[in-house]
Amino acid sequence: MASTNFVTIRERAVDEYYGPRAALLRGTVDSGDTDTVVDAALALAGATADHYDYGYIKITSTTDGLAPQGEVRAIDEGGLTAATGSFETVAFTAAVGAGDTMEVHPEFHPDSLDRIANKLLRSLHMPSFFPLTLDLQGSDDNDMEASGVTGWTGGTATPTKSTVAYNGAQSITLTGSGALDYVTAGNFAVVAGKSYYAGVMCQVDSGDSARVRMIDSTNSATIKDSGDTTQEAWMEYLFQWSAPTGCRQAQARLMCVASGDIARWDDYHIWADAAHVYPLPSWLTRKEQLLGVYAFPQGTGGPVADTFRADEMWSLYLPFRFERADTRADTPLYIWVAAAGSRRPFIRALRPLAEVSADYVTTVANTIPLSSTEADALVLGVVGGMHRMASNNTVGEEKKGHLSEAARYEREYDNGTRHLRPEWRENRVEHRRVTGTIA
Fold first, then answer.
1. How high is the pLDDT of residue 22?
2. What confidence score (pLDDT) does residue 429 get?
3. Which of 374, 375, 383, 376 shows the shortest CA–CA distance to 410?
4. pLDDT of 368-403, one tens digit each?
5. pLDDT tens, residue by residue, 35-56
6. Left if phi > 0, otherwise alpha if psi is -120 to 50, otherwise beta: which for 260?
7. What is the dihedral of CA 221, 227, 229, 235, to 10 degrees?
8. Could you tell me the CA-to-CA distances from 413 to 5, 21, 130 in Å, in that order?
9. pLDDT for residue 437
10. Would you kindly state where each structural domain of the chain is located, as residue ranges?
């Protein structure tokens, strides 16, 4: 999936809104201190000292990645020396230096633009796979896509996230600090005598090995150990198991076999052998978000027991229906799903985009998974929000002009993003197969 830098969205919105009346809107600092920013390229011949009164400067990057990166300060009244491109501002927490980059906002505080963009992002959803599971991890991290490792616990070593992934952008990684060190999502409820499946994707470093162990947490006993994989390619761990007599809680442990072994894990889930009702992740709050349920059959057997070669079989559609809904719950929706047997079940759903809080250049946490055309539409939506905000501070024909422009930009935003919003699904044709085109 393509991605767009959040700063780029703001800059393009600023260009679209201010461009006709303030062409010089960003630059690279030539010199400065805590309350002076100089960029000769922003010199405005013939401009008055108050040309940028009530405006703001945002430092979008610094050469050392330290303060005042990301800081915003108001431009002093009469604070522009037009001939040299020098701005006097309220003091930053540290001196602005040569090579730092900045944005000049003539009217609105840049945080206002960020709030408009995040409001729009909250309504946008991207198609996403997620493991259908009875052991729904507390932070919805069964697909390892959440930030950090909240909810994952284990032995001695602390797990981390890796960009080496089977699905999505992340996996969870453990470097064993001792033999059979492990990471787990914790205990989940089971019914004694009932048959279940455990599935997870695994990849190890050269010379290392990994194992999956099912634990009877009620009786502190091992239910089953998988074979030990040494494969550097992603392998599918999958096996059937039954809850023993007296077992009320179980736990899956994703293990490194020896001290120093490195194993990566992705898409962990537990499912019932027969048809069953499953919770959906907390981010799935509306029925319109669910696009389908699919089962992925195993490929040929791997080099050791309970492992299978990935990507050799195509998916199958599983019948489902909504069973329970309660907006008060942490997991609002439950679905009944037909028996998947040994085939790993996944949902395909529209997942809401996260808000972006890192709004300066040099952080990696400021990207949005949008295509170029979708990013174009988001820019138009932000500009529409700026015009609507400006209409609150104007009267008469000027107010009418802003409202007219707001409506025009908002229509273009709607046209460019409707496929990312669940409320438009009732007018769309959905294909049942994963390989179908989503209109």
1. 65
2. 41
3. 383
4. 888 899 999 999 999 999 999 999 999 999 999 999
5. 999 999 988 888 899 999 989 9
6. left
7. -100
8. 18, 23, 28
9. 32
10. 22-105, 109-124+354-439, 129-352
Q: 213 and 255 in contact (C-beta within 8 Å)?
A: yes
Strands annotated E in 106-179: 125-131, 153-154, 160-162, 171-175
The rounded distance, in Å, linking the Cα atoms of 39 and 306 is 64
CB 196 within 8 A of CB 241: yes
For residue 179, how many other CB atoms are within 10 A of its CB? 12
Beta strands in 217-312 (DSSP E): 221-225, 235-242, 249-256, 262-272, 276-279, 290-296, 307-309
User: Rounded CA gap, 439 and 372, in Å?
Assistant: 17
Dihedral sign of CA atoms 237, 238, 244, 249 in order: positive
Instruction: Give the orientation angle of helix 110-121 with respect to helix 372-391, to 10 degrees.
Output: 120
Tell me if 258 sits within 8 A of 209, measured CB to CB.
Answer: yes
The pLDDT, as a whole number, for residue 364 is 52
- 2-31 pLDDT, tens digit each: 678 888 898 899 999 987 766 678 899 999
Q: Are strands 36-38 and 86-89 parallel, antiparallel or unpaired?
A: antiparallel
Q: Give pLDDT, residue 438.
A: 33
For 218, what's the count of Cα atoms within 13 Å in the CB-facing half-sphere?
14
Please list, in sequence order, all residues whose beta carbon lies within 8 angstroms of the beta carbon of residue 400, skipping any fewer than 6 positions away: none
The CATH architecture assigned to 129-352 reads: Sandwich (2.60)
Tokens, residue 264: 């990566």
- Spell out the SS3 assignment of 304-356: CCCEEECCCCCCEECCEEEEEECCCCCCCEEEEECCCCCCEEEEEEEEECCCC
Q: In the predicted model, what is the mean pLDDT of the chain?
A: 91
Q: Starting at the edge strand that comes first in sequence, how are the strands of the sheet with 344-352 ordered?
A: 125-131, 344-352, 290-296, 316-317
Q: What parts of the chain have a pLDDT lower than 70?
A: 1-2, 21-23, 358, 361-365, 425-439
The letter for the amino acid at 47 is A
